[in-house]
Design a protein that fits this description.
The structure holds 2 protein chains of 2 kinds. By secondary structure, chain A is α+β, with helices and mostly antiparallel strands. Chain A has 12 helices and 21 strands. Classes of the chains: A alpha+beta, B alpha/beta.
Chain lengths: ~450, ~425
């Protein structure tokens, strides 16, 4: 039977932000749909970031971003262990390589305090070297930020969306909202989706959707960030995230461990016009290697496991673009840049408050009615499935046959090999499928009922 | 599950733990049993023994070790059967996490974990990340499993394995349109090139690199450094080998900076007492029969070590250092003359050092020096050109100084 009642809320964009909004809405007595043009949740900007849970120490004080990053940090820090999203407190150290950067450190410590973070510690050259002995020559000093965390960026949006689905949210993937009919009571988004309220979490396409609703105020200028992921054998080279000191001249790149046990070098920051320009470039890779060689020369002796690029939804403004339009029953979460992973749960709170202000009735479900989820841990610092059962089929990442089958079934299954990778780490390792592609594709086909040709990407 | 592996191996009563059931590991295990070693356990992380040859349908296996021409799968089956008959304990689907002697009680360990091809990312080939990008290894397994790989392929590389990808692609219903190598010529046997690329009209593009891969969901083209765009929906990255040295690195074994595998002496002893290494972990990549013969030789060293005639674990001897354009030599470390050398049963004079070069050497000679003095000089045997191996004699070892502070250098005479 077709339910032709309109939804109460449509969340457009199933990245980490939209998924967090859908999750929080699912805790209320509402009919909610989470819509995305892509084949999976978290498959756009959210999948390609630096995977750091930021304290927000270096945000611009007084901005919405500063407030939401601080709040989001606390929320996600508490939520991640509850559902099994790997987080690791490694801390970070900003490394000054010249006098200008050294002079900036006390100012950054003050800025951190203004952002409500008092945990920073100024370090002299010797102290930095003692903490991170593999840094290159020319270290002048540093600033320790002990509360920076690493987080699993793949499981986070999937956990949000899975919880949303478990609590009644509909998910519509491969559904591009390209024509909006704004109504007096109900908006028609096409594809049979009618809704009373809309949350714009459309990331790179947020400005287009904003204009479709008749509003203006920001334009997305995609900022491409290229990243190089090094082999796990590089992991012992560092214990903390090595951050650059932002100066007027350059933002610099970071070297960070990942929860998966790799080391990441990046990102570049190039403003581009193409909203689908997620390819890496020769010049970007060359620039990263050059900077990486200066920061940690030994890192470049290790093999590269992956090179990829993500697009951040930057705008002409220096802050998030959050607006609500009660007349249109519309809330916009625009211009959410690389901090969106950290701030996602705070953005969800913000969106729900604003929906309430726009007239949405928010009746919380009782706690006992809420379904919780448990994700399979993908982090190296915690117990992984292969350590208790199952047959390892992806040897580089030690993913078991049981995990492959599980990821291809359930309420929010992987629909392609990238989705499978984000759910299990399979094919994400150093051999990139040299040993295991055929077996994993066969297992995925068997579990999903889809053909091996589909899984190998031979058909659309 | 324990520290050593996911499927518990009782290492306390194990004489030799062999890690990896490819040609080198299985041949070593069989030889160890033949030499009377009691308990030989081979741990293999895959479902089946045999290693890489299992997926290689073409003929060309077994020439040096079985004196006959076999396909990869029948070659792999033959070794598996020999291992079974000789009383080797084969543990399949068993991943070894820690092969260091401190972690397990086996009396000796042989690492034979093999080699893999560098995938696209490790070669830093930029561009989009569409489906349809493989290595020869993944391609072989997909085709063998009957999974459709694509319709039009570009092969990156023009060494032996690159040419083996041609029949594999054709078998899988995918037409190879071009091969791209950054070298001025291909690096395989003329006959092999003619029988594969020549016969099937595969264009060889020399002196070019792939600098971009285009396509959003599926590969649409590769772009070369001269701007040429070759339409295809499949790209196969071939060769460019990197040893699977994870266990060796975790075990703290000294790694040779040329091969990227553990440094070994001519008795296949690594820098850690009781740990040996053999096969393509030491040199990427030799043919299966060469690896199997090397496994046999390593087994004899291990047997000597176990029965006490050669319990002595030498302190590291001098490293062998290759100078440009040489890339590596294997074995790459000398041991003191007391071990391995001088024991006539080992026929040390007959085996040879394996080398690789970055440039075509033609008929130029190689010189081996220590303390600035010439130990040996002579012409290589085999084609001394990139991406294939050639060898030099090992007889000069007797004259070498075992002092680890006196490296031995290998240079090409101009």
């Amino acid at each position: 039977m077709i339910d032709d009642r309109p939804y109460d809320v449509a969340v457009i964009g199933a990245g980490v932000v939209g998924s967090a909004v859908a999750r929080l809405l699912s805790h209320h007595r509402l009919r909610v749909v989470l819509v995305d043009s892509g084949p999976d949740v978290g498959a756009g900007t959210s999948k390609a970031n630096t995977a750091i849970l930021h304290t927000g120490f270096d945000a611009t004080p007084g901005t919405i971003e500063s407030r939401l990053v601080a709040r989001g940090y606390a929320l996600l820090h508490a939520y991640a262990p509850q559902v099994g999203i790997a987080i690791e407190q490694t801390g970070a150290v900003l490394v000054a390589w010249n006098d200008e950067q050294l002079a900036a450190l006390p100012r950054l410590a003050k800025k951190a305090a203004a952002n409500g973070y008092a945990g920073t510690e100024l370090l002299d050259r010797a102290a930095v070297r003692a903490l991170e002995p593999n840094l290159g020559d020319g270290v002048c000093g540093g600033l320790l930020v002990p509360d920076e965390h690493l987080i699993d960026p793949w499981s986070t949006p999937i956990a949000f969306a899975t919880e949303a689905v478990a609590n009644g949210v509909d998910v519509r993937l491969n559904t591009a909202i390209d024509r909006v009919s704004v109504g007096i009571d109900v908006h028609d988004l096409g594809h049979g989706i009618r809704t009373r309220f809309v949350v714009n979490a459309a990331g790179l396409h947020g400005d287009e959707l904003h204009r479709a609703f008749g509003f203006d105020g920001f334009t997305i200028r995609p900022r491409r960030g290229e990243l190089i992921v090094f082999d796990k054998l590089a992991r012992p080279l560092l214990t903390r995230t090595i951050l650059p000191v932002p100066t007027s001249a350059t933002k610099g790149v970071l070297i960070a461990p990942t929860v998966f046990g790799n080391v990441m070098l990046g990102p570049t920051a190039d403003d581009i016009d193409d909203r689908s320009g997620t390819g890496s470039t020769s010049s970007g890779v060359a620039r990263l290697l050059e900077q990486g060689r200066r920061i940690m020369p030994r890192l470049l002796d290790e093999e590269v496991t992956a090179v990829y690029a993500g697009l951040r939804a930057a705008t002409e403004h220096g802050d998030y673009q959050i607006t609500s339009e009660p007349s249109a029953r519309y809330v916009c979460l625009g211009g959410i840049r690389s901090t969106g992973l950290t701030s996602s749960m705070a953005l969800a709170e913000e969106a729900v408050i604003r929906l309430g202000q726009c007239g949405l009735e928010l009746v919380p479900k009782p706690d006992e009615a809420l379904v919780t989820v448990r994700m399979t841990n993908l982090g190296e610092a915690f117990t992984r499935p292969y350590q208790s059962s199952g047959r390892i089929v992806c040897h580089c990442e030690r993913v078991t046959d049981v995990e492959i089958a599980a990821a291809c079934t359930g309420p929010l299954p992987a629909t392609d090999i990238d989705g499978l990778r984000r759910r299990t780490r399979s094919l994400a390792g150093r051999c990139q499928g040299f040993y295991c592609t055929a077996e994993i594709v066969t297992l995925a086909a068997r579990a999903s009922g889809k053909s091996t040709a589909h899984w190998i990407g031979a058909s659309g | 599950m324990n520290r050593v592996s996911n499927n518990a191996i009782d290492t306390a009563s194990t004489d030799v733990l062999v890690v990896g059931a490819g040609p080198a590991g299985l041949a070593a295990a069989v030889e160890l049993r033949r030499l009377g070693v009691q308990r030989v356990v081979v741990a293999e992380r895959q479902l089946e023994p045999g290693g890489i040859p299992r997926h290689s349908q073409h003929l060309g296996y077994g020439i040096r070790d079985f004196r006959r021409l076999m396909t990869g799968p029948s070659y792999a089956r033959r070794y598996a059967k020999m291992a079974e008959r000789s009383g080797v304990e084969l543990r399949l689907s068993t991943t070894v996490f820690d092969a260091a002697p401190a972690a397990n009680d086996a009396r000796a360990v042989l690492l034979s974990t093999g080699v893999r091809e560098r995938p696209r990312a490790a070669r830093l080939v930029p561009g989009a990340r569409p489906a349809g990008v493989y290595t020869t290894g993944s391609l072989q397994q997909l085709v063998m499993a009957g999974i459709a790989v694509g319709s039009w392929a570009v092969i990156v590389g023009a060494e032996h394995v690159s040419y083996s990808a041609i029949p594999t692609l054709l078998h899988g219903g995918c037409r190879p349109v071009a091969m791209v190598t950054d070298r001025p010529a291909h690096q395989t046997y003329r006959l092999l090139a003619a029988a594969t690329a020549g016969r099937n009209g595969v264009e060889l593009v020399v002196g070019r690199r792939v600098v971009d891969i285009a396509g959003q969901r599926r590969v649409e083209a590769v772009v070369l450094d001269d701007g040429r765009r070759i339409a295809c929906d499949t790209v196969v990255f071939t060769g460019d080998w990197i040893p699977d040295h994870e266990l060796a690195r975790h075990g703290g074994l000294a790694i040779d900076c040329g091969t990227n595998g553990p440094a070994v002496d001519s008795s296949f002893r690594t820098s850690v007492a009781g740990v040996f290494a053999a096969g393509n972990l030491l040199h990427g990549a030799e043919t299966a029969d060469v690896c199997a013969l090397e496994g046999r030789r390593a087994a004899r060293s291990i047997a000597d070590f176990l029965c006490g005639t050669d319990r002595w674990w030498p302190p590291s001897g001098p490293d062998m250092i290759v100078e440009s354009p040489l890339l590596w030599v294997s074995p790459n470390r000398l041991s003191a003359p007391r071990a391995a050398i001088g024991s006539p049963s080992k026929a040390t004079d007959r085996w040879r050092f394996t080398l690789r070069t970055a440039q075509d050497l033609g008929r130029r000679a190689i010189e081996v020096r220590q303390h600035g003095l010439l130990l040996w000089s002579g012409r290589p045997v085999g084609t001394a050109s990139p991406n294939r191996s050639f060898t030099i004699a090992s007889t000069w070892q007797r004259a070498a100084d075992p002092d680890p502070a006196a490296p031995i250098t290998l240079t090409v005479v101009n």
